[in-house]
Amino acid sequence: MKHFKQVLFGVGVLFILIGCVDKFRENKEIKTTCPIGVEPVQKVLFIGWDGVRTDALLQANTPHFDTLLGQSIFCWDVDRGPYTVSTPGWSTLLHGVWPNKHGLTENSFKKNNYKKYPDIFTILRAYKPNLGLATLSNWDAFLQITDNETYAQRFDTDPEMLADALQLLDNCTPDAMLLHFDFPDDTGHEFGFSPTVLEYQNAIEVCDHYLGQLMSKIYWREANFGEKWLVVLTTDHGGEGTGHGNRDDLPQTRKVWYVARSPEFSSTEKITGLSTEILPTMLKWLNCPYAQYDLDGISLF
Asked: Which of 110, 124, 237, 275 lies most in the core, judged by the most C-beta atoms within 10 Å?
């Protein structure tokens, strides 16, 4: 009888633990419809480089990134807010509010307040229901941060994701596309988040190589189809040692960077910035009204 009770207790604990885990719901979060864009001119490409420290980025050899700065509003001292892990960071960027509103303080979605503070795709879908919207990542949780996209796909590697993104730009040309590259964060956790760590610097430079391929496609589309692309690059957090969580007080984890490039922008450096400025910037570029959403930032232009 004692053994039987122990078994029942173990099963009960297992179900409790299972209940606390955020499940990746493939049927809900994987979508394969070609996200055909309907806006003839204004487009948005959001590129997230997970876990890229500002000082490491500035030291890395990134010719494609550097080229963007001539047509960009950019900042190297951006407050990404508290709770320096990925889910709160990307939620702040893509919902446009701080954790006290979106509700997330850890890598879990259990306490999200997404219904009250919706993501970029939900806002855009309410504005224009037929927009082509896509999100691509090799980290499952990134796909849970947004909803109402036309296309959502996860990948085993960044190169696979890049190849798919380039095909989408050719075949569908979505109105807004989100890309999440995980290589820098993965490398930082293994070798260290520091400009003195060769492997970490190399991961950033690999992402710059991917950026070059994406921008070649963007430049070609702008030249041949009259499109104008807002290309936003940013990160969710920095790092120290091989981690970044629970380090809100360290500038190398909390203070990050952003770049917003447009063919209509000239080089403009901001002294300080906020991660919450990114969502209103993207919405304004797409002519989407957003005053009713109680966002915590204002557009960069």
From this structure: 237
